[in-house]
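Q: Got a minute? One more chain.
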Amino acid sequence: MSFYKNKTDARASKTLRLCFLAMLLSLGLVLPTFFHFAGGPAAGKIFLPLHIPVLIAGLVLGAADGLFLGLLLPVLSALISGMPSPVILPFMMIELSFYGIFCGIFKSLTKKNGVSLILALICGRLLYAFVLLLLARIALENVPAAIAVAGSALSGLAGIVIQLIFVPPLCGAAQRYTFARHKKQFEKA
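A: Always. Here it is, folded:
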């Protein structure tokens, strides 16, 4: 955020960032409810609605905000709606945190939403699979770890397609809006 002329512009940016983060948090609480209402209890595992706000946060706001939302969103969702279940909650926190961090890191390296998203999904899914392999026997006592990893990857394919279609354009629109707004502020000064 080095293009600000003074502290007032920097404060406005911080306020805009916090408002955008709050909007993504709200979206993350409403979107899963809609999917579960429309598609039943299994819709969360299929369409991955909690992932969308975290991916957007990582791409638009950066790795730190992606991590923050990735940790906070599943906990608040579980407290408010009971989804994800207490057994799945730690895994969701880990997975979403990975996605938020990787989106922010890859966006800072590539500057492209689509490429960053694909790289983040690959790395996040690999790390999540590794964590599942290590912890699946604890949480899922009767299910072999390899089956848990494969089941998780296959059940979320529709959600990954949705993410690849909708997240990059949404991030681009948010970034264009923010840049255009700040550009107008600088022209007035």
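A: The chain has a mean pLDDT of 83.
Q: Perfect, thanks.
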